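[Automated response] Your request has been received and processed.

Submitted sequence:
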Amino acid sequence: LTWNVGEPPIEGYTGIFWTVVLAGFIKLGFSPIAISHVVGILAFFAGWLLLFLSLRKLDLPDFISSVILLFYATSPILFTHALGGLETMLFIDAILLSFYFLLSAKETALFLSLLFTSLVRPEGAALAIAFIIATGISKFKNEREDFKFWLWKFIFFYLIPALVYFIWRANYYGALLPNTFYAKEGEGV
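Generated structure:
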């Protein structure tokens, strides 16, 4: 994996998942441009559905939920991202999926969705840390007898796979953070 063919590996993308998905479709003979547009559009609608389901879990008044869904459905920046060919809409879906599982108190699904979020974009790991700390504190305070089992699920379904990926990435690219971070900092890698 490299941004410039024939040069040493450099992370010119933000998340591995989107790169692997597009590479798979290229291998099957599809145009990555067409696939990225189709996935972006489908992800836009999936995001609306995940937002709808999350709002139902929150049990908000219908008017407030309707306004939130209307804002999502009519936000011009989301149209841009849906057709932009990048992983942004997929990342929004991953966040909304994680939020839905957080609200549903489905721990294994939450850990797997947070892993997915972390693979779509590295900053998904920051979201995962926030969600895991919040659920861990809640579990420890309110269901202490289940905390040890919760901790094992976290280790097995999130921590180990995430560590494997992030350690591989740091070894492969020779940098802990994505190249985009260093480029924005003016250092380059």
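Summary generated for your ticket: The chain has a mean pLDDT of 89. The longest helix spans residues 144-173.
If you did not submit this request, please reply to this message.
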